[in-house]
Automatic annotation (TrEMBL):
Domain spans labelled tRNA methyltransferase TRMD/TRM10-type: 6-223
Gene responsible for this protein: trmD
Top-rank taxon: Bacteria
Name recorded for this polypeptide: tRNA (guanine-N(1)-)-methyltransferase
Primary role: Specifically methylates guanosine-37 in various tRNAs.
Cellular location(s): Cytoplasm
EC annotation from Swiss-Prot or TrEMBL: 2.1.1.228
GO molecular function: tRNA (guanine(37)-N1)-methyltransferase activity
Any one Gene Ontology BP term: methylation
Length: 243
């Protein structure tokens, strides 16, 4: 089954963009996923192809019209999850990416200006998604991020099936540090344990480093990881005992 991505945007020329290169680009050429970028302006009904209007109640900027957005959404008949990139959306997680990547694809609505007429969310059951607490010019960059995260998980896109298992966020932790040749560079050497050939020691070191990096750099992730680790199989929480 091909993962089908449909993008509803005012700037379809932004796609595939970087998704046309590297692993994603090769996978697109090989038919492992498909892309259909549709111009929202094509669904306007007046001669000026108007897609926005002034905010009700006054204020700066313009708002994308619900009737035009609905026509664009209704033109898509894939049955895939319908997402909108919005700053108030649920933060995108690796767990959500894995769920999306295992499905038939996604339809992503990209906003511009001051955003969407609020009525479109209730009328069309749209899932709002955010990629971070910062401001972008529109939803297209967020859509590219979401698609890149999904595409790399599709069967046959990455090399070995296990090549992404230890990467940051897959296990709830940041990834451990990596090294490669030369052994010594500017007076800095590769940790001895990585040259020992002892796979058990290497695995233990990598686990320790992943935990240390997460605890120091992302205490929020560490807290969630620790909370999950003390959860019993029945779902009841156990109190951590002091050593």
């Amino acid at each position: 089954m091909t993962f089908a991505a449909t993008i509803l945007t005012l700037y379809p020329e932004m796609f595939p963009g970087p998704l046309g290169a590297s692993l994603a680009g090769r996978a697109l050429a090989e038919g492992k996923w498909s892309l259909d970028a549709r111009n929202i302006r094509d669904f306007a009904t007046d001669k000026h192809r108007t897609v926005d209007d002034t905010p009700a109640g006054g204020g700066a900027g313009m708002v994308l019209r619900a009737d035009v957005l609905a026509a664009a959404i209704d033109s898509v008949a894939t049955g895939a999850p319908l997402l909108a990139m919005t700053p108030r959306g649920a933060p995108l997680t690796q767990a959500r990416i894995r769920a999306l990547a295992s499905g038939p694809g996604v339809t992503i609505l990209c906003g511009r200006f001051e955003g969407f007429d609020e009525r479109i969310f209730e009328a069309r059951g749209i899932e709002e998604v955010s990629i971070g607490d910062y401001i972008l010019s529109g939803g297209e960059m967020g859509a590219l991020v979401l698609l890149d995260a999904c595409i790399r998980l599709l069967p046959g896109v990455m090399g070995a099936p296990s090549s992404g298992d230890d990467e940051s966020f897959e296990s709830g932790l940041l990834e451990y540090p990596h090294y490669t040749r030369p052994y010594e560079w500017e007076g800095r050497t590769i940790p001895e344990v990585l040259r020992s050939g002892d796979h058990a020691r290497i695995a233990a070191w990598r686990k320790l480093m992943a935990e240390t990096e997460t605890r120091l750099r992302r205490p929020d992730l560490w807290e969630r990881h620790e909370g999950a680790r003390v959860q019993s199989p029945s779902g009841a929480r156990r109190e951590k005992k002091d050593a």
